[in-house]
């Protein structure tokens, strides 16, 4: 049975429901699955728990779901650049569970590897650790963190083959590999779909983790913050 679908909406058919947990790859606007996020928005599902490093920026990426009032809870590293996200958090309309960035990545990796929980020193003695089990190892205190298994994982890849083997490009790799492993159903949009196979030495996410695959709509890649300097100064530093 082919994993490849002709359109993002077809790839997501039957995968969405109210109250589900969705893990989403990307960091800000880098490596986010634009097409798949738009399908979630257009579906109108509500009371979602979103697991992602952050919620993008206002009006773009996961910010679309906040604008549409589809999100009940977010598990993320920071509120960051999204003013609406910050406002909904402060207003109490969206619940936020903060997780240190490395801890969040490991929670998804653990979930994908079948590890229900692990211990880390990160967050001990801070609000992040409140209410969680603690244990002492070699004279040091650690806090228990639970692995994350999402109902649905949405991923953006640069290159894929028809078996779902994935390669990511540069910074757009970010959280996508761990998101790809932690979903009960994983849907991927890819910029390039090969007729042959990805070189096994280049595979980052094996196709066994991928359930559905679609070619991403070509679009301009958004830059969250553009930093520039006078052209005369470019390349003059030692």
From TrEMBL:
Keywords: Transferase. It comes from the Bacteria. One of its GO terms (molecular function) is transferase activity. InterPro entries: 3-oxoacid_CoA-transf_A, CoA_trans_fam_I, CoA_transf_BS, NagB/RpiA_transferase-like. It holds the Pfam family CoA_trans. Belongs to the 3-oxoacid CoA-transferase subunit A family. This is CoA transferase subunit A.
């Amino acid at each position: 049975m082919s994993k490849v679908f002709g359109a993002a909406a077809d790839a997501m058919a039957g995968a969405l429901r109210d109250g589900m947990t969705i893990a989403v790859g990307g960091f800000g606007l880098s490596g986010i699955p634009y097409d798949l996020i738009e399908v979630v928005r257009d579906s109108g599902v509500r009371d979602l728990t979103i697991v992602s490093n952050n919620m993008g920026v206002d009006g773009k990426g996961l910010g679309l779901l906040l604008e549409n009032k589809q999100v009940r809870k977010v598990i993320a590293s920071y509120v960051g650049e999204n003013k609406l996200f910050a406002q909904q958090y402060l207003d109490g309309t969206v619940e936020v569970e903060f997780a240190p960035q490395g801890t969040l990545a490991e929670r998804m990796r653990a979930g994908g590897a079948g590890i229900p929980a692990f211990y880390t020193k990160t967050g001990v003695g801070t609000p992040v650790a409140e209410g969680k089990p603690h244990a002492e190892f070699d004279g040091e205190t650690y806090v228990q963190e639970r692995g994350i298994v999402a109902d649905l994982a949405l991923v953006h890849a640069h290159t894929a083959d028809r078996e779902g083997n994935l390669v990511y490009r540069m910074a757009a790799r970010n959280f996508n590999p761990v998101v790809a492993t932690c979903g009960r159903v994983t849907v991927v949009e890819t910029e390039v779909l090969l007729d042959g196979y990805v070189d096994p030495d280049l595979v980052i996410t094996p196709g066994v983790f991928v359930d559905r695959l679609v070619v991403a709509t070509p679009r301009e890649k958004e830059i969250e913050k553009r930093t520039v300097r006078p052209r005369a100064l470019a390349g003059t530093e030692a």
